[in-house]
């Protein structure tokens, strides 16, 4: 039973992090549309933003949150926003440099990888 609950909670954490990433990308698209004349309006990022925030709230109500997930979720939100910003600035170079965005993006991704345990070597069982 404990293994089943742990697996379910792990899937819920992944879902939370992916939804935070999507919310960050959609939020940055809406801000880019407001601030830059080159970015055209699309209703789909607005719909995706509303649905991802709603799903995040429902996930928050249904499942308990692990200790590190709120901070890692916020970092995933910023990865989505900063990553989309770097993408937009690569498409429209006249809007400015994306160097700082890429540096912030890489630092956040490395920090998230460290927090989630992707950067630590796995211990081998010697049984």
UniProtKB/TrEMBL annotation:
Sequence intervals crossing the membrane: 16-35, 41-57, 69-90, 96-113
Q: From which residue to which does any coiled coil extend?
A: none
Keyword annotations from UniProtKB, A to Z: Membrane, Transmembrane, Transmembrane helix
Q: Does the keyword ATP-binding apply?
A: no
Checking InterPro entries in the record gives: DUF1422
Signal peptide boundaries: none
Question: One Pfam family from the UniProt entry?
Answer: DUF1422
Question: What is the name of the protein in this document?
Answer: YijD family membrane protein
């Amino acid at each position: 039973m404990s293994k089943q609950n742990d697996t379910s909670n792990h899937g819920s954490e992944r879902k939370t992090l992916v939804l935070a990433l999507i919310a960050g990308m959609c939020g940055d698209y809406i801000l880019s549309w407001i601030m830059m004349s080159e970015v055209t309006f699309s209703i789909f990022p607005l719909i995706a933003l509303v649905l991802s925030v709603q799903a995040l709230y429902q996930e928050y109500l249904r499942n308990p949150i692990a200790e590190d997930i709120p901070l890692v979720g916020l970092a995933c939100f910023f990865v989505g926003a900063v990553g989309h910003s770097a993408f937009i600035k690569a498409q429209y170079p006249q809007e400015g440099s994306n160097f700082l965005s890429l540096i912030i993006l890489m630092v956040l991704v490395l920090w998230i990888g460290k927090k989630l345990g992707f950067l630590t070597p796995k211990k081998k069982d010697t049984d």
